[in-house]
Every structure is written in C-alpha cells, then in structure tokens.
Write a structure and sequence with these properties.
Elements: E1 2-4, H1 11-19, E2 24-26, H2 30-40, H3 65-72, E3 76-79, H4 82-97, H5 107-116, E4 119-120, E5 124-126, H6 134-145, E6 151-152, H7 189-193, H8 197-228, H9 237-242, H10 246-258, H11 271-274, H12 276-298, E7 306-308, E8 311-313, H13 321-348, H14 351-354, H15 371-386, H16 408-436, H17 447-458
Parallel strand pairs: 1-2
Antiparallel strand pairs: 3-5, 4-6, 7-8
Length: 480
C-alpha cells in the first residue's frame, strides 16, 4: 500500500504502485479542499480559468476549460506502456493532494480508483517539451469525462518470492470495475493538466531502476576483483578518509565488505579496479542528487496559477529545468560507470591478470569470450548517445510567449532507455568474470550465458557474491 499525502512520495513508491501492484490510498483531502474553496471566491482575471492560455492569456473567455482539454489531447508515436501511465496518475494525484491547484477535490478519489482498478489513459510518446505534460493529462481528463476510452487491464500482481499453489477459481468472480468518470468543470481543466507528472513518473522509474543497477555494479566489480586478484588497497578506509566524497566512501566500504578473502596486491592495477570507487561513487552521488530533485517535484504544488492564501499566484514553477539538469548529469555519470566496466572486461581477457588463455578461451588460439567485448562496446555506444545533454536546447512557441523549454521529458525518456544497455554492459562483465574463475569451456554461443547473467543481475532481493575461484595449478601464479 502506498499512502499519498502530497508530501512523502518517493521514486521507489512510484515504481511500487506502477509495476509491483501496490494499491494507493489517500491520506487527506484537506489541502486540496482548501485551495478549491479559495478558487471559488477569486475575482478578476485568472489564467486558464477566465482567460485563454499561452498567447491567448489576455483574452477573456467564458468557461474556456473543456475546449482547452479537447485541443490539447494530442500525442504521437508509440503508445506508452500502461505501467508508465499508471505512474503518471500516481504522481499527479499526489501533487494535487499537496494543494494549490484549486481543482475540485472530489476528482482525487476517482483517480485513486483508476490506479487501483487498472485503468490508464491511452498515452503516446511525443507531446511535451518539459513545460508541462499537457497532452498526456488532457487525454486523461477526457477519459474522466467519458470522451475517450480508458485502457483497462488488471493492475500488476506482486510476484511471490516462491511459487505457491494456485487457488481455485472463485465460482462467482467479481464484475469488472466501472470505468472511472468525473464531470470536470471548466474551472478544473487547467488545474488538472498544469503539471509535468508524466515526465516525473518516468524520471522516478529511471532513478529507482538505476539505483538497483548501481548496487549491482558493485557486486559485479567484486566478482571481477576476485577473478583477477585485484588489490583492495585502493579501497582502504585511510584512502577514503583522505578524499571524503560521500559516494566514493560508500562504494569503497561496500566493495571492501564483499571482498571477504584477502586480495593479492600489485603496485598498481588498471583504472577499472584502482579508480572504481572514485568513478562509481561519482555516479552514485549524481543519482542521489537526481532522485532528490525528482522527489521534490513529486511532492510539489507546482501549479500555475498557484492558489494560496486568498490569491492566485501566476508563476513558472511548472518549468522543469532542475529535473532536466539533474538527469543530464546522471546520464553522463552512468556512462563513466559503464566505461569502467568495459575496461575491467578488457582486463579479464588478458592472461597476465587471469592466468587463463587469451579471451578466456578453452584452448590456445580460440576466441573464447572475445565477443562479449563487442556486445559491451555496442551497448556502451548507445549509452554515450543517450548521454547527450538535452538542456543545451530550447524552444519558442505560442507566438513567442512561451520562449524557453527545459526538455526534462526527453531527459527522463533517455534515462529510461539507459537501463537496458547499462544492464547489458554489466552482464558482459559478470559473464566474463565468472568464466575467469572457473576452467573455461570450449567455444560455444554465449547468448544464453549473457541472458542468464542479466536475469541474475536483475532478480529482486538477490545479492551477488564472488564465487570461489578454480584456477588451474599451473597458472595460479599468474594471478599475482
């Protein structure tokens, strides 16, 4: 169960509600209700309530809201998977609970019911530039009004850790829940769509998954350290205290704990081992900053106008610059982590470090696991492409009134796309390191090995640990 109170939503909880089958419940409608009461008492022009939007901000209109929803319910490209759409609903619901929108609070339980009964709006990939997910939320609003159909599927069930016997089918299954409906008023239209909830949902999901992969990266490095007998001296507490970056210190401490047996010591190991804590620690810090930035906005009343006190405050809190910048830095940092993984992979192919044949082959002259370097470098090239910053661009639209854009939408989308290639890079390293610890088999296709490694890396709750080495007696000395 995820309790939504407009103040404490985390990236992990967004993922839990979107993918793991957690139901959402509302703590209190008080702040949303207070803003709604204030909004009913406002006089004078209020953006989007009594005026047009964008370049039409100075045009007084009678009940402009429903036309606004119909005109903005547009998207293009591939459909967005239901889990990501469900995450958007969770984020927007939590933001509205923070107050400040002036929307009718009666719509909020309806949104919660949509999440809990597997209803999601039919969203498309393209339609936002980091100044509000207007197309996605307008589409959602038209679903509430009954003008567009919801996508309906059962919410995901949390998978059990161990298989359990199937319960017999109920002789009288419950009828499907009715489609969520709510008669949004014209004054509810802009308050409903004035949010970057879809972008924040993607960012939260990406941050959650990257945190898991960053933890796995330390586990994988521990296997490689063991496979080549890398020195643990660079991880020593004294070294970390001399340069106390928080990420570096935490990574070094955790890796020290995983390297249970004493490591052989060279004067200097390659950077993939010697500088692992520094490089991966910087990525961990970038992730911490990105997640903290996203979580501020998950719980923010970033409404325009903001209904607070007895006034409507027209503002730019919808702008996504902080999130876009944080995600740009995160994607650049994770490339550094992946580059270091491919560097360790190259070391694992070297007999001088493993005591095995070249490329971890079963006999001299064979190619062994060489193809893993090609696969890893292909995935790394994708990560480098996805790391290009989005914040160097902008857009001018609506007759020049909206003259800047943050493009956090694209930053979040690219962060999600980084998950697969980063996972593949780490799986290549893990496959090679495991092979180096045991007598390598004859040449054979490695696709199944790589997929098995990916499943191992992403299995919830499991931790990797260095398996016992099995070096041939004749070459064990080469590990030193």
């Amino acid at each position: 169960m995820v309790l939504l109170d407009g103040a404490g939503l985390t990236c992990a909880q967004v993922h839990e509600a979107a993918y793991d089958g957690a139901r959402v419940t509302i703590a209190s409608l008080d702040r949303a209700r207070a803003a709604w009461v204030t909004a009913q008492e406002l006089t004078g022009p209020v953006y989007g309530r009594s005026t047009g939007v964008g370049a039409a901000k100075d045009v007084t209109l009678e009940a402009p809201g429903l036309d606004l929803l119909r005109s903005h319910a547009c998207g293009a490209g591939p459909p967005i998977e239901p889990a990501r759409a469900r995450a958007m609903l969770v984020v927007r619901l939590n933001q509205l609970l923070a107050g400040g929108s002036g929307i009718d609070p009666a719509v909020l339980p309806v949104l919660a019911d949509a999440v809990n009964h597997g209803f999601t709006p039919p969203l498309r990939t393209y339609g936002a530039i980091g100044t509000g997910d207007l197309a996605a939320l307008a589409t959602t609003a038209l679903c509430l009004l009954g003008e567009l159909p919801w996508h309906h599927g059962e919410p995901p069930a949390r998978a059990p850790r161990h298989p359990e016997p199937q319960a017999p089918a109920h002789p009288h299954p419950e009828p499907p829940a009715p489609a969520p409906r709510f008669p949004l008023a014209s004054s509810d239209a802009l308050p409903f769509i004035s949010s970057g909830a879809a972008t924040l949902a993607d960012a939260a999901i990406a941050c959650h998954h990257l945190r898991l992969l960053f933890e796995v990266a330390i586990d994988v490095a521990a296997v490689s350290f063991t496979a080549v007998g890398a020195s643990a001296e660079p991880l020593a507490a004294a070294v970390q205290e001399a340069r106390p970056h928080s990420g570096q210190t935490a990574v070094a401490a955790r890796l020290r704990g995983l390297l249970a047996r004493e490591q052989a010591t060279r004067i200097q190991d390659p950077y993939g081992f010697r500088a692992f804590a520094q490089v991966h620690g910087a990525a961990v810090e970038a992730l911490d900053r990105a997640a903290a930035t996203v979580e501020i906005d998950l719980n923010a009343a970033a409404e325009n106008p903001l209904i607070s006190g007895s006034l409507a405050w027209h503002n730019g809190n919808f702008h996504s610059a902080p999130v876009a910048l944080a995600l740009d830095a995160l994607r650049a940092a994770l490339v550094q982590t992946a580059q270091l993984s491919t560097a360790r992979l190259a070391t694992l192919m070297d007999p001088a470090y493993t005591g095995r044949h070249r490329f971890l082959a079963g006999h001299p002259g064979a190619s062994g696991a060489l193809i893993l370097e090609y696969v890893a470098q292909d995935a790394l090239a994708e990560l480098r492409h996805l790391a290009n910053p989005v914040t160097t661009g902008t857009a001018v639209i609506s007759l020049g009134v909206e003259d800047h854009a943050g493009f956090a939408t694209q930053a979040a989308r690219h962060a999600l796309r980084c998950l697969e290639p980063l996972e593949i890079v780490l799986a290549c390293e893990h496959t090679a390191a495991t092979r180096a610890l045991h007598a390598p088999p004859p040449d054979r296709p490695l696709t199944d090995d790589l997929e098995a490694a990916r499943r191992t890396l992403t299995r919830n709750g499991d931790r990797l640990s260095p398996p016992p080495a099995d070096p041939p007696a004749a070459t064990a000395g080469a590990r030193r």
